[in-house]
Design a protein that fits this description.
Layout lengths: L1 H6 L13 H11 L1 H22 L8 H36 L6 E3 L5 E4 L1 H9 L4 H5 L3 H4 L7 H12 L10
Helix pairs in contact: 2-3, 2-4, 3-4
Length: 171
Amino acid sequence: TVAVAWFVRDALVVTRFLLFWPASVLIAWRCGLGPVAIASLVGAMVWNAAFDSSMGMHIAITSPELFTIAVYVAVSTSLGFTVDHLRRARIRVAQATNGMTEAMFVFNAQWRLKFVNSAGSVLLQQIGMNLAHLKARDIWAGARGAQGTIFDTETRRAHGARGPGEFEGPV
């Protein structure tokens, strides 16, 4: 991100921190809200000093630059809060469902696997399916052997009803 920002620095005079936001989201996802707030502030100050000195300016921060830094840090912290909240919610769901003895699968509208608990992972392994392979594609393309089974009919029924599905059957 810094390298890209360096090459387009002349075009980023007003919005020079725009390219740092993806890094802020990544830091928030991996580390949490506190680290993203600190990284945003330190990154903005270092970038501002490097940008000013590379342009032959003195390093004193002007009011518009201070405002830009404040906006960047505020937006990064807001993004950090939101992403951190989502990360923690996902962890809570995983902790709650991984203790279940029943397999749980969550699919998106394109039938891509979005979540599977530990019992679901075990079930997939028992029937010879690779979890990493299934997450990358349509469940029905990756699970040809499941077509026509109770898993197929009940999963499609639940999808059509826009609700949960529940069934028992042999593996």
